[in-house]
Amino acid sequence: MSILVGKKAPDFTVPAVLADGQIVDSFSLSETIKGKYAIVFFYPLDFTFVCPSEIIAMSHRMDKFREMGVEVIGVSIDSHFTHNAWRNTPVEQGGIGAVEYTLAADMDHAIAKAYGIESEGGDSYYPAGVAMRASFVIDQKGIVRSQVVNDEPIGRNMDELVRVVDALQFFEENGQVCPAGWNKGDKGMDTSPEGVASYLAESAKSL
Length: 207
Prior knowledge:
Elements lengths: L12 E5 L5 E6 H5 L3 E6 L7 H11 L1 H6 L2 E7 L3 H8 L14 E4 L4 H5 L18 E6 L5 E7 L7 H17 L18 H11 L4
Parallel strand pairs: 3-4, 4-5
Antiparallel strand pairs: 1-2, 1-5, 3-6, 6-7
């Protein structure tokens, strides 16, 4: 697995199912997220187990992500046709319903390889060849600012992705860094010895 934090997010153009249900042959990441924040999140396979809970949880937070100016793109190695079938399967039957963001089709595994999260199998719960349960937060310049990978049985907390974007935007707007456990509305920290001392004097016991 490679580390992409601080590097340009690998671009891709692949078939996809858009948020409105339209199937397209050429969805471009760079064109879609140009000048915007983005989350690219990978999951192993359609019609599986932990994956639908994550995908639905992400869709439930799309109003918040849109408010923050964030594009969301889900990616697995399944085809756009399988993505579409899963969207058209009722939630009560293991489907995901009409999720409110794009699902991209990484059929040749090129995206998973470019992001360094194609499973090699081994001692992991992942079968070889699928995308790991990975999330990438990308800034408005196309640079990866956060990268998190969970093993297959461990579902992600989509509220944490909201928090990370909040923290990134706070830093960009205020120039202050976000200490441990920071949430929107909390104080930041000045990047100086005095700033650290001031913050810890006030907040260390609550960390």
